[in-house]
Amino acid sequence: MEGFVIEGGTPLTGRVRVQGAKNAALPILAATVLAAGTYEIHDVPQLTDIDAMCRILQSLGAKVERTGHRVTVDTIGLNQTHIPDELMSRIRSSIFLMGPLLARLGKVTISRPGGCAIGKRPINLHLKGLACLGVEVAEEGDIIACSAPELKGAEITLDFPSVGATENIMMAAVCATGETVITNAAREPEIVDLAAFLNKMGARVQGAGESTIVIQGVPKVQATNHSVMPDRIVAGTLIIAAGATGGEVELDNVVPEHLESVIESLRQTGLAIETAERGLRVQAERKLTGIPHIVTTPYPGFPTDMQPQMLALLTLCEGTSRVTEKIFDSRLKHVEELKKMGAEIRLEGDTVTVHGIRRLTGAHVCATDLRAGAALVIAALNAQGRSVVAGVEHIDRGYERLDEVIAQLGGQIHRVALKKQ
Ligand code: UD1
């Protein structure tokens, strides 16, 4: 087990390049299953979740080579339709392989992904959407066996704009006969990146980024190359880290429009955020003030993936702020950890009320999930004295060497081995 030891109080300053987006790279890697061929995917972040996806592709018979941020995937020999349980349990994103495997080989068997630290996370919308395309779904215990001799275009209305279900259905529909219309589709930028990748392969996907996506089935697609979009959540996390330390940071490889709702909220606190040559510049030039109420909603609303980091910042903003988590049912475990650092914070149901204090105090805290971990790092960078953030394996799922990036900006952070408790 590893942890970060952080001495708080140094303003982050300097310039860094933001990594490629995990949440775009994962479905794009899954989509390489669609057509036999060799793909070069660039700007793939080096993360444990990406390692797991590469291992799954290998277990299905693909060859995967990684050089820095380039991943070469050769799916010519891919011939397996069962995703091993051990790998399935490692990343939920393995469900992205359902759509592509059904499209390529007509079959897929997975074990049902369980709940996780942030909530129950069912997959009913994935299964319902695939069933509309003609997939037969047989469930026995935790095993889900899907088969589809032929996929047929259909009109699918999602009960909720699920990111993963939208992506899975899009991938399954690429080579289905006829037209597929997804209504109430998720609109996240990662869906637009996946659509761009699929269209480069020869698919005909229109409307990604809007609530209605139309896919005209094509008989065949082929391998292609692609560069993954920048990670908007990592960018948002670094902006907040700069803000919480009273620093000044320039971020390259950012698409400011992807962060509109986050930037709007951060400007309300008083942070100065401007577009820069290749991204954004952030400066904490004055005392920050709280925000009356932030509610997480699907894109383009305030992202659930930025809620913990925002909450960490609000513990330091003058006045009272409220944050309501509406996407996941159990994504507020960091509240207890922030309390250990002196935050004046109260949780009632899905809503957190925060009274800002001037500075947090260093403490031993534990990351329970990826973004909660990022929030605790932000809090520790602000705190007076030394903090130890345990559970770094969660952070490594989504942030490429966060400790090194922060150290590059002058933050006092070290990765250490922790004894098991
Ligand atoms: C993706 C992101 C994750 C982000 C989330 C919401 C990836 C790899 N992960 O996760 O970082 O936090 O979007 O922006 O892209 N739901 C159902 N049934 C389903 C599917 C989802 O009830 O079949 C519910 C979930 O439990 C959750 C909500 O819908 O409450 C949103 O989930 P979804 O948009 O599907 O998130 P993911 O794709 O899992």
Automatic annotation (TrEMBL):
<feature type="binding site">
    <location>
        <position position="305"/>
    </location>
    <ligand>
        <name>UDP-N-acetyl-alpha-D-glucosamine</name>
    </ligand>
</feature>
<dbReference type="InterPro" id="IPR001986">
    <property type="entry name" value="Enolpyruvate_Tfrase_dom"/>
</dbReference>
<feature type="modified residue" description="2-(S-cysteinyl)pyruvic acid O-phosphothioketal">
    <location>
        <position position="116"/>
    </location>
</feature>
<feature type="binding site">
    <location>
        <position position="92"/>
    </location>
    <ligand>
        <name>UDP-N-acetyl-alpha-D-glucosamine</name>
    </ligand>
</feature>
<dbReference type="InterPro" id="IPR005750">
    <property type="entry name" value="UDP_GlcNAc_COvinyl_MurA"/>
</dbReference>
<dbReference type="InterPro" id="IPR013792">
    <property type="entry name" value="RNA3'P_cycl/enolpyr_Trfase_a/b"/>
</dbReference>
<dbReference type="InterPro" id="IPR036968">
    <property type="entry name" value="Enolpyruvate_Tfrase_sf"/>
</dbReference>
<comment type="pathway">
    <text>Cell wall biogenesis; peptidoglycan biosynthesis.</text>
</comment>
<keyword id="KW-0132">Cell division</keyword>
<feature type="domain" description="Enolpyruvate transferase">
    <location>
        <begin position="7"/>
        <end position="404"/>
    </location>
</feature>
<dbReference type="InterPro" id="IPR050068">
    <property type="entry name" value="MurA_subfamily"/>
</dbReference>
<dbReference type="GO" id="GO:0009252">
    <property type="term" value="P:peptidoglycan biosynthetic process"/>
</dbReference>
<comment type="similarity">
    <text>Belongs to the EPSP synthase family. MurA subfamily.</text>
</comment>
<keyword id="KW-0808">Transferase</keyword>
<dbReference type="GO" id="GO:0051301">
    <property type="term" value="P:cell division"/>
</dbReference>
<keyword id="KW-0963">Cytoplasm</keyword>
<dbReference type="GO" id="GO:0008360">
    <property type="term" value="P:regulation of cell shape"/>
</dbReference>
<dbReference type="GO" id="GO:0071555">
    <property type="term" value="P:cell wall organization"/>
</dbReference>
<keyword id="KW-0131">Cell cycle</keyword>
<protein>
    <recommendedName>
        <fullName>UDP-N-acetylglucosamine 1-carboxyvinyltransferase</fullName>
        <ecNumber>2.5.1.7</ecNumber>
    </recommendedName>
</protein>
<dbReference type="GO" id="GO:0019277">
    <property type="term" value="P:UDP-N-acetylgalactosamine biosynthetic process"/>
</dbReference>
<keyword id="KW-0670">Pyruvate</keyword>
<keyword id="KW-0133">Cell shape</keyword>
<feature type="binding site">
    <location>
        <begin position="22"/>
        <end position="23"/>
    </location>
    <ligand>
        <name>phosphoenolpyruvate</name>
    </ligand>
</feature>
<keyword id="KW-0961">Cell wall biogenesis/degradation</keyword>
<feature type="active site" description="Proton donor">
    <location>
        <position position="116"/>
    </location>
</feature>
<keyword id="KW-0573">Peptidoglycan synthesis</keyword>
<dbReference type="GO" id="GO:0005737">
    <property type="term" value="C:cytoplasm"/>
</dbReference>
<comment type="function">
    <text>Cell wall formation. Adds enolpyruvyl to UDP-N-acetylglucosamine.</text>
</comment>
<dbReference type="GO" id="GO:0008760">
    <property type="term" value="F:UDP-N-acetylglucosamine 1-carboxyvinyltransferase activity"/>
</dbReference>
<dbReference type="Pfam" id="PF00275">
    <property type="entry name" value="EPSP_synthase"/>
</dbReference>
<feature type="binding site">
    <location>
        <position position="327"/>
    </location>
    <ligand>
        <name>UDP-N-acetyl-alpha-D-glucosamine</name>
    </ligand>
</feature>
